[in-house]
């Protein structure tokens, strides 16, 4: 049985867990995550890297991203620059600091 092609893979709908950011940041993070999710390599680290780089380009540098099924985080972030959401079994945490 072969794996489905990247463009055939369903993309889970993001569910917000914590949002302290603008709608523009939230929408950009969702779009970047969906694009990364459709990629050939759905490795957590690759997905996090793609989301981080996209946010750096769109909203200036200093963004950090963590993607995984099981993690805890205690972070310091700039005001209104924090978002945590679920996509399927994965949690995505993005925040800006520095």
Report on the structure:
This protein is α+β, with helices and mostly antiparallel strands and 98 residues long. 33% of the residues lie in helices and 29% in strands. The protein has a four-stranded antiparallel β-sheet, with helices on one face. The relative contact order is 0.25. The mean pLDDT is 91.
The H-and-E topology, N to C, reads as EHHEEE
Amount of beta strand: 25-35%
Major beta-sheet overview: 4 strands, antiparallel
Note the gap between the termini: 47 Å
Shape field: globular
- Can you give the helix content as a percent range? 25-40%
Structural class, judged by helices and strands?
A: alpha+beta
Brief description of this entry?
The chain is an alpha+beta fold. The chain has helices at 23-38, 44-59; strands spanning 14-21, 63-68, 81-87, 90-96. Strand 3 (81-87) and strand 4 form a beta hairpin.
List the helices and strands and how they pair.
Layout: E1 14-21, H1 23-38, H2 44-59, E2 63-68, E3 81-87, E4 90-96
Attribute tags:
2 helices, 4-stranded antiparallel β-sheet, 33% helix, alpha+beta, globular, 98 residues
């Amino acid at each position: 049985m072969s794996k489905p092609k990247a463009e055939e893979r369903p993309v889970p709908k993001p569910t917000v867990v914590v949002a302290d950011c603008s709608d523009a940041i939230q929408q950009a993070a969702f779009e970047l995550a969906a694009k990364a999710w459709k990629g050939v390599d759905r490795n957590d680290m690759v997905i996090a890297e793609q989301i981080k780089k996209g946010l750096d380009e769109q909203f200036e540098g200093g963004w950090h991203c963590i993607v995984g099924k099981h993690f805890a985080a205690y972070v310091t972030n700039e005001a209104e620059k924090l978002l945590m959401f679920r996509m399927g079994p994965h949690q995505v945490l993005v925040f800006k600091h520095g």
